[in-house]
C-alpha cells in the first residue's frame, strides 16, 4: 500500500523519519513522499530523512519558530492560519500514486496534538483517498497537561480520520528507563509494525506472496473508523549459514511450519499490542505472516485466521503472507481494527477530566484566565474543535 506520510510536531517528524529508515532498509517502496509540519524550526532542522523542501514551518508570525509549548489550542490556531502552506506541500506530492494518507503526531504536546486533526480534516476535504492517523499517547508520568492534551486531541483526531492507529508510549517504556531515552527504540518498533503492514502488498520482485495483502485488504480492515491497535511477534529460525558451497537448505517439516505460524500469531495477538485492548472488542482484523517462502504456508495463515475469528468474535478476519527470502525470522503482524474496550483511553479521559477540573478551580481565582479554558461544566472533556 502506497502512502503519503505527514509527520506533525516533533514526535510526528521523528516517527516519520523512522518509518523512512525502515523503508530504506527493507528495500520495499511504500512511502510515496513524506512531509514534516512543525511550529519549531529546530525540530524541523533535526530531521534526517524527510527532504528539506518538504519541511513546513507553521505559526511563524505567532511563535517565531519556537514551538507551541504544549498548548494544543495554539497548535489548532497556527495550523488553521497556515493551512495553505501545508496544502502547498501536499499539492506537490504525486497524490495519484497514493492509496492513503497517514498523519502522525504525538498527542500530548502542542503542535502535533493540535495541528494533526486540522491537517487530517483538510486532507479529507480535498482528496478522496482515506486519511489515517497515527497518534502517540503520552507516558503517565508526563503530567496532567499532557494527558488532558492527549484526551482532547484524541477525541478530535479520531473523528477527523478514517481510522486512528494508536501507539501508547506508556505501555512501551522499559522498566528503569526514562521515556525520553527509549524514544529511538519505540520509534523503531512503530516503524517495523507499519513497515510490515504497508510493505506486504508492495513486493514487486519474486518470490511473490501466495496470498497477497493488497491495499484494498488494508483499507477494508480499517474501514468503519474508530481505533486500531497492532500486535507483532517473531520467531527466530535456525537456518544453516548461507553461502555454503552447493548446500541447499532442507525443506522444513510442514506441520512445524504451520505450528510456528499459529503460535507466532497467538503471541502477536495476546502479547504487546501498540495499544493494550480487549481483543474481543475488535470489529475487523488482518493477519500478515512474513518470513522466508519455505517457512510460509497458506494452511498456517488460514488456521490463524480461524483462531482470530474465535478470539475476536468477528467473521471479518483477512490474511496474507509477505515473503522475505533473506529473513531469519517468521513474524506475525495482527491488526485489530475498531477496538472499543481500551482501558488506557478510559484512564486518559478520567485523568484529563480531573486536570480540567483543577485548572478550572485555579482559574476561578483568576477570572481573566477563564477565557483560555474550554469547560462545559459537566466533567466531560471537550474536543479541540
Ligand atoms: N514515540 C515517541 N514519542 C515522542 C517522541 N518525542 C516526543 N514524544 C511524545 O510526544 C509528546 C510531546 O509531543 P511533541 O511532538 O514533542 O510536541 P510537539 O507536537 O512538537 O508540540 P510542542 O513542542 O508543544 O510545540 C509527549 O507525550 C512525548 O512523550 C518520539 O520520538 N517518539
UniProtKB/TrEMBL annotation:
Pfam family, one: CetZ_C
Location(s) in or outside the cell: Cytoplasm
This protein's record includes keyword Repeat: no
CDD domains for the chain: CetZ_tubulin-like
Residues that coordinate or bind GTP: 10-14, 110-112, 142, 169, 187
Gene Ontology MF term list: GTP binding; GTPase activity
Superkingdom of this protein's organism: Archaea
GO cellular component: cell division site; cytoplasm; microtubule
Gene3D superfamilies the record matches: Tubulin/FtsZ, C-terminal domain (3.30.1330.20), Tubulin/FtsZ, GTPase domain (3.40.50.1440)
GO biological process: cell division; microtubule-based process; regulation of cell shape
UniProt-listed InterPro entries: CetZ (IPR032907), CetZ_C (IPR048737), FtsZ/CetZ (IPR045061), Tubulin/FtsZ-like_C (IPR037103), Tubulin/FtsZ_GTPase_sf (IPR036525), Tubulin_CS (IPR017975), Tubulin_FtsZ_GTPase (IPR003008)
Domain Tubulin/FtsZ GTPase: 2-201
Primary residence: cytoplasm
SMART domains noted in UniProt: Tubulin (SM00864)
Keyword Nucleotide-binding (UniProt): yes
Keywords: Cell cycle, Cell division, Cell shape, Cytoplasm, GTP-binding, Nucleotide-binding
Role according to the record: Involved in cell shape control.
Annotated family: Belongs to the CetZ family.
Protein name: Tubulin-like protein CetZ
The organism of origin for this protein: Halobellus limi
Amino acid at each position: 500500500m502506497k502512502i503519503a506520510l505527514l509527520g506533525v510536531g516533533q514526535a510526528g517528524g521523528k516517527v516519520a523519519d523512522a518509518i523512512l529508515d525502515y523503508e530504506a532498509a527493507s528495500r520495499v517502496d511504500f512511502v510515496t513522499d513524506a512531509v514534516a509540519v512543525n511550529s519549531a524550526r529546530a525540530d524541523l532542522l533535526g530531521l534526517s530523512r524527510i527532504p528539506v523542501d518538504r519541511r513546513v514551518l507553521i505559526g511563524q508570525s505567532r511563535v517565531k519558530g519556537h514551538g507551541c509549548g504544549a498548548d494544543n489550542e495554539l497548535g489548532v490556531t497556527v495550523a488553521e492560519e497556515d493551512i495553505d502552506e501545508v496544502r502547498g506541500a501536499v499539492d506537490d506530492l504525486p497524490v495519484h500514486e497514493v492509496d492513503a494518507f497517514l498523519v502522525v503526531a504525538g498527542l500530548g504536546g502542542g503542535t502535533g496534538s493540535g495541528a494533526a486533526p486540522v491537517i487530517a480534516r483538510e486532507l479529507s476535504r480535498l482528496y478522496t483517498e482515506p486519511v489515517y492517523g497515527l497518534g502517540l499517547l503520552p507516558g503517565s508520568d508526563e503530567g496532567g497537561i499532557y494527558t488532558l492534551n492527549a484526551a482532547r486531541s484524541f477525541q478530535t483526531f479520531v473523528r477527523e480520520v478514517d481510522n486512528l492507529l494508536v501507539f501508547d508510549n506508556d505501555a512501551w517504556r522499559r522498566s528503569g528507563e526514562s521515556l525520553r531515552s527509549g524514544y529511538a527504540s519505540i520509534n523503531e518498533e512503530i516503524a517495523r509494525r507499519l513497515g510490515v503492514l504497508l510493505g506486504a502488498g508492495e513486493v514487486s520482485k519474486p518470490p511473490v506472496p501466495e496470498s497477497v495483502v493488497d491495499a484494498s485488504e488494508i483499507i477494508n480492515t480499517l474501514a468503519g473508523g474508530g481505533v486500531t491497535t497492532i500486535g507483532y511477534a517473531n520467531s527466530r529460525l535456525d537456518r544453516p549459514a548461507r553461502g555454503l558451497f552447493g548446500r541447499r537448505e532442507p525443506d522444513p517439516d510442514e506441520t512445524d511450519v504451520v505450528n510456528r505460524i499459529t503460535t507466532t500469531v497467538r503471541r502477536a495477538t495476546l502479547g504487546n499490542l501498540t495499544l493494550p485492548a480487549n481483543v474481543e472488542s475488535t470489529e475487523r482484523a488482518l493477519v500478515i505472516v512474513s518470513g522466508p517462502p519455505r517457512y510460509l504456508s497458506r494452511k498456517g495463515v488460514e488456521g490463524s485466521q480461524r483462531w482470530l475469528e474465535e478470539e475476536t468474535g468477528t467473521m471479518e478476519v483477512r490474511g496474507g503472507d509477505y515473503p522475505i527470502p533473506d529473513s531469519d525470522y517468521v513474524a506475525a503482524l495482527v491488526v485489530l481494527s475498531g477496538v472499543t474496550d481500551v482501558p488506557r483511553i478510559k484512564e486518559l479521559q478520567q485523568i484529563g477530566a480531573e486536570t480540567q477540573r483543577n485548572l478550572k478551580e485555579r482559574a476561578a481565582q483568576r477570572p481573566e484566565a477563564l477565557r483560555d479554558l474550554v469547560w462545559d461544566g459537566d466533567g466531560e472533556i471537550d474536543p479541540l474543535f
